[in-house]
C-alpha cells in the first residue's frame, strides 16, 4: 500500500494505492496465543500544517508508552500542497506488535480546537487499553477478522479478541442473517479476553481476469 495523499476531515481528499494478489480460497485460522508486546511502531502525520505538529504528537505518545517498554518508534510524515488533501489537520497511528505476530492498532486524527499533544496522549492511552483487554486483533478490526473466518473453508477457526465492540455485535448479527454463520463466543476464565469459534462456509473466488 502506498499513500499518495493525506486526507483529514472535513474536506478529505486522501488517496492511497493498494495492490494485493488474487486469493481463490481462504485458510482456517487458530489465533489464540496473543503473546507479549515486544515493540510499538507508528506514524504521526501532519497535512497542510507546520511540520513540528507531528513531532509534538510523537513526543507526547512516547512519554506514555516508554513507561512500559523501551522499543517505541513513531515516524513523522509531513504533507504540503496537493499531497496534503483538501483540509489542514494531523493524526497518528500506533501499532503494538507481539511475540506471536499479533497486532493491535489505534488511529486518531485532530484538527481545529484540538492540540497535537492531546492526540498523541489519547492514541497512546487507547493503545494501552487495547493491550490490557487482550486479543489477537484490536476492537476496530474485529469485524474484518470475523468475516474472513466466516468466509473460510468448512473447518473450525478460532480467534481470541479483547472487549467486544458494539459494531462487532451488529456485524455478528449481519453475518448470521446473510451468511448463515453463527459465532460461538466463550470467555477465557484465565483472562478478560474472549475466544470466538466458527465453521466457515467454504467461499471460493470464482472471478476471472478480464481480457
UniProtKB/TrEMBL annotation:
Gene Ontology MF terms: RNA endonuclease activity
Gene3D superfamilies (alphabetical): RNA 3'-terminal phosphate cyclase, insert domain (3.30.360.20)
A biological-process GO annotation: endonucleolytic cleavage of tricistronic rRNA transcript (SSU-rRNA, 5.8S rRNA, LSU-rRNA)
Keywords (A to Z) from UniProt: Nucleus, Ribosome biogenesis
Subcellular location as annotated: Nucleus, Nucleolus
Superkingdom assignment: Eukaryota
Start and end residues of each RNA 3'-terminal phosphate cyclase domain: 2-185
UniProt keyword Nucleus present: yes
Gene Ontology CC annotation, any one: nucleolus
Domain RNA 3'-terminal phosphate cyclase insert per the UniProt entry, residue ranges: 33-131
Similarity field: Belongs to the RNA 3'-terminal cyclase family. Type 2 subfamily.
PANTHER family: RNA 3' TERMINAL PHOSPHATE CYCLASE, RNA 3'-TERMINAL PHOSPHATE CYCLASE-LIKE PROTEIN
Designated name of the protein: RNA 3'-terminal-phosphate cyclase (ATP)
Organism annotation: Diacronema lutheri (Unicellular marine alga)
Amino acid at each position: 500500500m502506498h499513500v499518495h495523499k493525506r486526507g483529514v476531515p472535513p474536506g478529505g481528499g486522501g488517496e492511497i494505492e493498494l495492490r494485493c494478489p488474487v486469493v481463490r480460497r481462504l485458510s482456517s485460522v487458530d489465533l489464540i496465543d496473543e503473546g507479549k508486546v515486544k515493540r510499538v511502531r507508528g506514524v504521526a502525520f501532519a497535512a497542510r500544517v507546520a511540520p513540528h505538529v507531528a513531532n509534538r504528537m510523537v513526543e507526547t505518545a512516547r512519554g506514555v508508552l516508554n513507561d512500559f517498554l523501551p522499543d517505541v518508534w513513531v515516524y513523522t510524515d509531513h504533507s504540503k500542497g496537493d499531497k496534503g488533501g483538501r483540509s489542514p489537520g494531523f493524526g497518528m497511528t500506533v501499532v503494538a506488535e507481539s511475540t506471536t505476530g499479533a497486532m493491535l492498532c489505534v488511529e486518531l486524527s485532530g484538527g481545529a480546537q484540538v492540540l497535537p499533544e492531546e492526540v498523541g496522549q489519547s492514541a497512546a492511552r487507547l493503545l494501552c487499553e487495547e493491550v490490557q483487554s487482550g486479543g489477537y486483533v484490536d476492537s476496530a478490526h474485529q469485524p474484518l477478522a470475523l468475516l474472513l473466518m466466516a468466509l473460510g473453508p468448512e473447518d473450525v477457526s478460532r480467534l481470541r479478541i479483547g472487549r467486544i465492540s458494539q459494531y462487532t455485535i451488529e456485524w455478528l448479527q449481519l453475518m448470521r442473517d446473510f451468511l448463515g454463520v453463527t459465532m460461538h463466543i466463550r470467555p477465557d476464565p484465565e483472562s478478560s479476553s474472549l475466544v470466538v469459534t466458527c465453521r466457515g462456509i467454504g467461499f471460493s473466488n470464482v472471478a476471472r481476469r478480464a481480457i
